[in-house]
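May I ask for a single protein's sequence together with how it folds?
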Amino acid sequence: MGDTQPLPGARHGAGAEQERGGRPALRRGDLAALRMGVRVDREGLLRKDFQTAQNVIVAGGGSVGDLVSNRYFLSDAAFLVGLEGDFMLLHRLHASLAHPRWPVFLGRKSYVPSIPPYIKNGLLEGAELMSALASFTPLISVEELAARRKRVESGRRVERTRFVLESASPTHEIRRDQPMSFALGQRVFHDRFVVTEYLDVFRWTGKGGQ
Protein backbone atom coordinates (compact mmCIF):
# COMPACT_ATOMS: atom_id res chain seq x y z
CA MET A 1 0.00 0.00 0.00
CA GLY A 2 1.50 3.31 -1.01
CA ASP A 3 0.65 6.87 -1.86
CA THR A 4 0.04 7.92 -5.43
CA GLN A 5 0.18 11.03 -7.60
CA PRO A 6 -1.50 10.70 -11.02
CA LEU A 7 -0.44 12.98 -13.88
CA PRO A 8 -2.43 13.32 -17.11
CA GLY A 9 -0.95 14.13 -20.49
CA ALA A 10 -0.34 13.14 -24.06
CA ARG A 11 2.73 11.06 -24.89
CA HIS A 12 5.33 11.92 -27.51
CA GLY A 13 8.18 9.43 -27.83
CA ALA A 14 9.33 6.18 -29.36
CA GLY A 15 7.61 3.80 -26.95
CA ALA A 16 4.01 2.63 -26.71
CA GLU A 17 3.37 4.44 -23.46
CA GLN A 18 4.79 7.18 -21.27
CA GLU A 19 8.48 6.51 -20.56
CA ARG A 20 10.64 7.26 -17.53
CA GLY A 21 12.82 9.64 -19.50
CA GLY A 22 9.85 11.79 -20.53
CA ARG A 23 8.01 11.78 -17.25
CA PRO A 24 7.16 15.09 -15.56
CA ALA A 25 9.70 16.09 -12.87
CA LEU A 26 12.68 14.18 -14.26
CA ARG A 27 14.16 11.81 -11.71
CA ARG A 28 16.91 13.06 -9.46
CA GLY A 29 18.14 11.20 -6.35
CA ASP A 30 15.10 10.37 -4.23
CA LEU A 31 12.81 10.48 -7.28
CA ALA A 32 14.36 7.18 -8.36
CA ALA A 33 12.48 5.44 -5.55
CA LEU A 34 9.06 6.40 -6.92
CA ARG A 35 7.19 3.61 -8.67
CA MET A 36 5.54 4.63 -11.94
CA GLY A 37 2.39 3.30 -13.56
CA VAL A 38 0.66 4.29 -16.80
CA ARG A 39 -2.98 3.95 -17.78
CA VAL A 40 -3.35 3.98 -21.56
CA ASP A 41 -6.69 5.55 -22.44
CA ARG A 42 -5.90 5.87 -26.16
CA GLU A 43 -3.01 4.00 -27.75
CA GLY A 44 -2.20 6.57 -30.44
CA LEU A 45 -0.30 6.09 -33.70
CA LEU A 46 3.48 5.89 -34.10
CA ARG A 47 4.76 8.72 -36.31
CA LYS A 48 8.20 9.71 -37.59
CA ASP A 49 9.72 13.17 -37.64
CA PHE A 50 13.14 14.40 -38.70
CA GLN A 51 15.72 16.42 -36.82
CA THR A 52 18.69 18.15 -38.43
CA ALA A 53 21.94 18.72 -36.57
CA GLN A 54 24.27 21.24 -38.20
CA ASN A 55 28.07 21.32 -38.28
CA VAL A 56 28.51 17.70 -37.21
CA ILE A 57 32.07 16.35 -37.21
CA VAL A 58 31.99 12.97 -38.94
CA ALA A 59 33.97 9.89 -37.91
CA GLY A 60 37.55 9.78 -39.11
CA GLY A 61 37.98 13.53 -38.98
CA GLY A 62 36.25 14.23 -42.28
CA SER A 63 34.57 17.45 -43.29
CA VAL A 64 31.88 19.03 -41.15
CA GLY A 65 28.34 18.55 -42.42
CA ASP A 66 24.67 18.29 -41.49
CA LEU A 67 23.14 15.15 -40.00
CA VAL A 68 19.49 14.15 -40.34
CA SER A 69 18.16 11.75 -37.72
CA ASN A 70 14.77 10.09 -37.23
CA ARG A 71 12.60 10.99 -34.23
CA TYR A 72 9.56 8.91 -33.34
CA PHE A 73 6.51 9.99 -31.38
CA LEU A 74 2.96 8.88 -30.64
CA SER A 75 0.22 10.95 -32.23
CA ASP A 76 -3.20 11.40 -30.60
CA ALA A 77 -2.35 9.21 -27.60
CA ALA A 78 -3.80 9.74 -24.11
CA PHE A 79 -2.19 8.53 -20.90
CA LEU A 80 -2.60 8.94 -17.17
CA VAL A 81 0.68 8.55 -15.26
CA GLY A 82 0.80 7.70 -11.56
CA LEU A 83 3.71 7.83 -9.13
CA GLU A 84 3.73 5.77 -5.92
CA GLY A 85 6.03 6.29 -2.94
CA ASP A 86 6.83 8.60 -0.04
CA PHE A 87 3.82 10.82 0.65
CA MET A 88 5.81 13.94 1.56
CA LEU A 89 7.80 13.72 -1.67
CA LEU A 90 4.60 13.25 -3.68
CA HIS A 91 3.10 16.25 -1.89
CA ARG A 92 6.05 18.37 -3.03
CA LEU A 93 5.71 17.12 -6.61
CA HIS A 94 1.98 17.81 -6.56
CA ALA A 95 2.60 21.39 -5.43
CA SER A 96 5.30 21.83 -8.08
CA LEU A 97 2.91 20.75 -10.82
CA ALA A 98 0.40 23.34 -9.64
CA HIS A 99 3.05 26.08 -9.89
CA PRO A 100 5.88 24.86 -12.16
CA ARG A 101 9.01 26.98 -12.33
CA TRP A 102 9.75 25.83 -15.89
CA PRO A 103 7.42 24.73 -18.71
CA VAL A 104 6.46 21.06 -18.41
CA PHE A 105 7.31 18.88 -21.41
CA LEU A 106 7.47 15.18 -22.23
CA GLY A 107 10.92 14.07 -23.32
CA ARG A 108 11.53 16.99 -25.70
CA LYS A 109 10.80 20.67 -25.16
CA SER A 110 8.56 20.87 -28.21
CA TYR A 111 6.36 18.04 -26.90
CA VAL A 112 4.12 19.54 -24.26
CA PRO A 113 1.09 17.86 -22.62
CA SER A 114 -2.16 18.58 -24.44
CA ILE A 115 -3.85 19.17 -21.07
CA PRO A 116 -2.27 20.48 -17.84
CA PRO A 117 -0.55 17.68 -15.87
CA TYR A 118 -1.89 18.99 -12.55
CA ILE A 119 -4.94 17.24 -11.05
CA LYS A 120 -6.38 19.16 -8.09
CA ASN A 121 -7.53 16.04 -6.24
CA GLY A 122 -4.73 13.88 -7.63
CA LEU A 123 -2.84 13.22 -4.40
CA LEU A 124 -4.20 9.99 -2.88
CA GLU A 125 -2.78 8.94 0.48
CA GLY A 126 -2.63 5.19 1.09
CA ALA A 127 -3.80 4.24 -2.42
CA GLU A 128 -2.44 1.30 -4.42
CA LEU A 129 -1.05 2.40 -7.78
CA MET A 130 -3.33 0.55 -10.20
CA SER A 131 -6.44 1.21 -8.11
CA ALA A 132 -5.57 4.91 -8.03
CA LEU A 133 -5.09 5.04 -11.80
CA ALA A 134 -8.43 3.31 -12.33
CA SER A 135 -10.24 5.76 -10.04
CA PHE A 136 -9.87 8.77 -12.33
CA THR A 137 -12.10 9.84 -15.20
CA PRO A 138 -10.92 8.69 -18.66
CA LEU A 139 -8.92 11.23 -20.66
CA ILE A 140 -11.16 10.69 -23.67
CA SER A 141 -14.43 12.30 -24.64
CA VAL A 142 -17.88 11.03 -23.76
CA GLU A 143 -18.47 10.56 -27.50
CA GLU A 144 -15.39 8.37 -27.93
CA LEU A 145 -16.35 6.33 -24.88
CA ALA A 146 -19.88 5.89 -26.27
CA ALA A 147 -18.46 4.73 -29.62
CA ARG A 148 -16.35 2.13 -27.84
CA ARG A 149 -19.38 0.90 -25.91
CA LYS A 150 -21.31 0.59 -29.17
CA ARG A 151 -18.55 -1.58 -30.67
CA VAL A 152 -18.62 -3.83 -27.61
CA GLU A 153 -22.40 -4.17 -27.65
CA SER A 154 -22.35 -5.03 -31.35
CA GLY A 155 -19.83 -7.79 -30.68
CA ARG A 156 -17.26 -6.29 -33.04
CA ARG A 157 -14.47 -6.05 -30.47
CA VAL A 158 -13.48 -6.20 -26.82
CA GLU A 159 -12.49 -2.84 -25.35
CA ARG A 160 -9.74 -3.11 -22.74
CA THR A 161 -7.62 -0.50 -21.01
CA ARG A 162 -3.90 -1.24 -20.68
CA PHE A 163 -2.07 -0.54 -17.42
CA VAL A 164 1.75 -0.67 -17.42
CA LEU A 165 3.17 -0.88 -13.89
CA GLU A 166 6.78 -0.91 -12.74
CA SER A 167 7.88 -4.12 -11.04
CA ALA A 168 10.50 -4.45 -8.29
CA SER A 169 11.18 -8.01 -9.47
CA PRO A 170 12.54 -9.04 -12.90
CA THR A 171 9.86 -9.70 -15.54
CA HIS A 172 9.88 -10.55 -19.24
CA GLU A 173 8.85 -6.96 -20.06
CA ILE A 174 11.80 -4.57 -20.17
CA ARG A 175 11.88 -0.84 -20.89
CA ARG A 176 15.32 0.70 -21.50
CA ASP A 177 14.31 4.22 -20.54
CA GLN A 178 15.54 4.67 -16.96
CA PRO A 179 17.59 7.90 -17.23
CA MET A 180 20.89 7.79 -15.36
CA SER A 181 22.76 10.66 -17.03
CA PHE A 182 21.76 13.61 -19.21
CA ALA A 183 25.32 14.78 -19.89
CA LEU A 184 25.65 16.26 -23.38
CA GLY A 185 26.70 13.50 -25.76
CA GLN A 186 26.77 10.95 -22.93
CA ARG A 187 23.16 10.15 -22.13
CA VAL A 188 22.83 6.87 -20.25
CA PHE A 189 19.67 4.79 -19.80
CA HIS A 190 19.26 1.61 -17.77
CA ASP A 191 16.63 -1.12 -17.94
CA ARG A 192 13.53 -1.28 -15.76
CA PHE A 193 10.98 -4.06 -15.43
CA VAL A 194 7.24 -3.65 -15.92
CA VAL A 195 4.11 -5.75 -15.88
CA THR A 196 1.05 -5.16 -18.07
CA GLU A 197 -2.48 -5.54 -16.73
CA TYR A 198 -5.77 -5.10 -18.56
CA LEU A 199 -9.21 -4.05 -17.39
CA ASP A 200 -12.42 -4.02 -19.37
CA VAL A 201 -13.01 -0.36 -20.20
CA PHE A 202 -16.52 -0.32 -18.77
CA ARG A 203 -15.62 -2.08 -15.52
CA TRP A 204 -13.78 0.99 -14.26
CA THR A 205 -14.82 4.00 -16.34
CA GLY A 206 -18.43 4.28 -15.19
CA LYS A 207 -20.01 7.23 -16.95
CA GLY A 208 -16.49 8.51 -17.72
CA GLY A 209 -15.31 10.78 -20.47
CA GLN A 210 -14.38 14.43 -20.46
In short: Confidence is low (pLDDT under 50) at residues 10-14, 23-27, 206-210. The beta strands are 3-9, 35-42, 45-57, 64-75, 78-85, 160-166, 173-181, 188-200.
